[in-house]
Amino acid sequence: MGDGSLSQDEIDALLQGADEIMSPSSAQAADSGRGRGLFPPSEMNAIRDALNAAVGSVAPSLSGYLGGRNLRISRPFIEVKSQDAVRADFSGRYVQVAMDFSGALNGRNLVVFNYSDAGSISSLMMGDDRGVPPAELSEAHQSTIQEFTNQLLSSMATQFSGSLGGGINTTPATLSLAGGGGDLQLPPGGELVKITYDFAIDGVMNSKLYHIMDTGMAQGLSSATGGMGQPVSQPQQFPAHAGQVGISPVKFPPLDEGIPPSVGGNISLILDVPMTLTVELGRTTQLVQDILGLGEGSIIELDKLAGEPVDLLVNGKLIAKGEVVVIDENFGVRVTDIVSPADRLAGLQ
After folding, report:
1. Model confidence at 147, in pLDDT bands (50, 70, 90)?
2. pLDDT, tens only, 25-82
3. Other beta carbons less than 10 A from residue 244's beta carbon
4. CB count, 10 Å around CB of 28?
5. Are 39 and 219 in contact (CB under 8 A)?
6. Across residues 129-145, what is the average pLDDT?
7. H or E element that contains 207
């Protein structure tokens, strides 16, 4: 326009451009300004580098839990907020998993999943190749997501301990459901550090993962950048001086190093382990006096009717049902029904 004013279309275009500039994908350089004076830019960058290196190193090993699907956890976006501000960021249903660190790094980790994302992860772990989330998370689904997060945080602790030069102890992961920010079991402290990761599983989801810790733990991470995500090398040997012996800590490579992703994690390592397969015709309960009275020709009535499927158990755990067949002069069992992954997992608990 000739008078120098902007049309409504031009104003809308400028506003849209401003939104794109401040989106999380391009605001990585700006999140240091959200430290609210607690962390200088150099510390904020060091914390981001430590987190990015840790999750980048851990994600490939977690793919084995997801049926071999590629998992990416990346681009940590860091904010320092008050307890109330963090709670205000979460509305809806979430799954939260907490784990405490002690030793070289101290504090509580709280990992928060969107409810549907947690359902997709647990479905993949339980054998559903599509990763379709259930309407409600059963105890079996919650158990799998708890194990997934336990491995995530424990592996991150291992990565951090290698760089901090000291061991990090972890508590067992504890899971609970949250109906909103008010239900979050946040770490103590007036100010908290909230990290938002890009969280993607090929062909299943492209979402966000939230990681909350206290400021003390975040500050400890600022010195955990050296060697993060680097291949494990041989321990450095120190020359022995008079009166002392050079000692260096033993470092072991990860168990999955050198195993191609196509084998589905470390399952190939146990394929030759023998297991006992048992066919159970039925069961019954009797008194001691009845058992002592058994003799040749006695008939024991079982809890199954004639023609009912028999149970197939591996190491005492039900995995399938079948029907008895005769092959030449030997008995056999034709498998007619496989127990679902969810029921199998529930039977292991």
Report:
1. very high
2. 444 434 434 555 678 888 888 899 999 989 988 998 888 889 888 999 999 999 999 9
3. 8
4. 15
5. yes
6. 92
7. strand 205-214
Distance of CA 173 to the CA centre of its chain: 10
Supply 279's token pair: 């066919």
Domains of the chain: 24-225 (3.40.1550.10), 274-348 (2.30.330.10)
The sheet carrying 330-338 orders its strands as 277-280, 310-314, 317-327, 330-338
How far apart, in whole angstroms, are the C-alpha atoms of residue 209 and residue 167? 26
* Dihedral (CA of 45, 22, 208, 193) sign: positive
**Torsion angle of alpha carbons 173, 178, 180, 184, nearest 10°?**
-30
Residues 39, 157 contacting (CB under 8 angstroms): no
Q: Are 210 and 192 in contact (CB under 8 A)?
A: no
Question: Where does residue 85 rank: exposed (0-12), middle (13-18), buried (19+ CB within 10 A)?
Answer: middle
**Please, is 144 exposed, middle or buried when counting C-beta atoms within 10 Å of its C-beta (0-12, 13-18, 19+)?**
buried
In which region does residue 51 sit, left (phi positive, over 0), alpha (psi from -120 to 50) or beta (all else)? alpha
Within 10 angstroms of residue 124's Cβ, the number of other Cβ atoms is 26
- The helix/strand count (H/E) of the chain reads as 8, 11
Confidence of residue 276 (pLDDT cuts 50, 70, 90): confident
Instruction: Check residue 56 and give left, alpha or beta (phi > 0: left; psi -120 to 50: alpha).
Output: alpha
What's the predicted TM-score (pTM) here? Answer: 0.58
257 backbone dihedrals φ, ψ, rounded to 5°: -65, 130
Residue corresponding to tokens 């336990």 = 150
Longest Cα pair distance anywhere in the chain, in angstroms?
112
Closest CA to 256 of 266, 270, 242, 244: 266
Backbone angles phi, psi at 253, to 5 degrees: -70, 155
Task: Name the residue with tokens 């024991």.
Answer: 300
Q: What are the tens digits of pLDDT across the range 228-242?
A: 444 333 344 444 444
